[in-house]
Amino acid sequence: MSTNNKHLTTSFGAPVADNQNSMTAGSRGPTLIQDVHLLEKLAHFNRERVPERVVHAKGAGAHGYFEVTNDLTAYTKADFLSAVGKQTPVFVRFSTVAGELGSADTVRDPRGFAVKFYTDEGNYDLVGNNTPVFFIRDAIKFPDFIHTQKRHPQTHLKNPNAVWDFWSLSPESLHQVTILMSDRGIPATFRHMHGFGSHTFKWVNGEGKAVWVKYHFKTEQGVKNLDVALAAKLAGENPDYHTEDLFHAIEKGDYPAWKLCVQIMPEEDANTYRFDPFDVTKVWSQKDYPLIEVGRMVLNSNPTNYFAEVEQATFSPGSFVPGVEASPDKMLQGRLFAYSDAHRYRVGANHSTIPINRPKAEVNNYQRDGAMRSDDNGGASVYYEPNSYGGPKEAPQHQVKPFEVSGEANSVAYDHDDHYTQAGDLYRLMDDGEKSRLIDNIVAAMKPVDREDIKQRQIEHWRQADETLGQRIAEGLGLA
């Protein structure tokens, strides 16, 4: 039998004499305000929840490592990719997108796939989804899109009218909606799905030569999806099914793994490719740019505390390392700001000093103060720059590779507006069973829409992608 000699203390270390009874004036009270232990407990309890994420609120995470298996130093000078066999610690968070913190895991929704690499040159965050494309391609539409996935301001219920009204007026969403309504819309577990960086990024090598790159994490467990009826049953009986599955798989040593591959496009091809390579609603053909193996990611350790690690983990597509840079992808450009700004609001200005987010590389800058500063705040060192006291200086050798821009400053759309070819190609690649389930899922999702013009507008998009697909959806909805 173990003996515990530890005393219960206040948050400042003073021993607590009684944790069962509050201090009162006599046996019936009232309670005395001098009971500082009671006040501290209640005040802390009132503040135990940070605001949940606006999107990707419900999620699970795990620690692991990434190991390089192929030499790609011809394409990037990124240190964590510099040698075959090199290992880098990672933390990965999987999530649903639209639901609240307590929502079910097995809903039809994209899944977030965010990887934090703790490299020797700082943290690199690759923040993507389990789909290679997205619903929109300009960040200015993101707040409106997410509003449609949230609750009606009067009824506080999910609103199919808003969902399909927005999609029907945003034809660029068709490719992602087709994926969402397919079998892939409900993964069997977080372990049985692919992950994608989704956006186009830039790699730069040691000689300053750049290429465009897309990331693909291929699950080694195989892709598995959930039947609609089973997913609905699990949502009621075990809403934390995916979270539970990931935790127990790792706990028993069944470590999930993914092979990381990339597609590489020569810099000059961006001007001539048949789709705009920076449009996140489009994929690059793997016949044109085959997958090249980079390495292997393994998750082998569960968090010890969910809040400290999973809930407080902050990821930003703007967390780059030398050798990896942004592309002109308009959606990515907006995310470079929005993610870190969300973390400053939700977790605090010093979220990068929280252990789960703290890089293993040394941090040297002139940022000081702010709520919840959890390190030495720079101590007595110099706190401005430039200075003549030997403070850290910029490293011009890591300057971002310049790229050419042209045109007038204006609100400009992408040049290419073919939103139908890739969605139609995806449908035609499906076997008969997959096609039928896709149509059944679309029909079931659109039936609650109470405006026929919204349905007709969306059906016209499906018809332009594939005549038969549009016709079958119309028939399923009982529309001409």
Automatic annotation (TrEMBL):
Do you know which SUPFAM superfamilies this protein is assigned to?
A: Heme-dependent catalase-like
Q: Where is there biased composition of kind Polar residues?
A: 1-25
Q: SMART domains, alphabetically?
A: Catalase (SM01060)
Q: Return the protein name.
A: Catalase
Species of origin: Paenibacillus yanchengensis
- Enzyme Commission number(s) from the entry: 1.11.1.6
Q: Gene encoding it? A: katA
What family classification does the UniProt entry report for this protein?
Belongs to the catalase family.
- According to the UniProt record, what class of enzyme is this? oxidoreductase
Keyword Cytoplasm recorded = no
Q: Which PANTHER family did the record assign?
A: CATALASE
Single GO MF annotation: catalase activity
Question: Which InterPro entries would you find in this protein's record?
Answer: Catalase, Catalase_3, Catalase_AS, Catalase_clade1/3, Catalase_core, Catalase_haem_BS, Catalase_immune_responsive, Catalase_sf
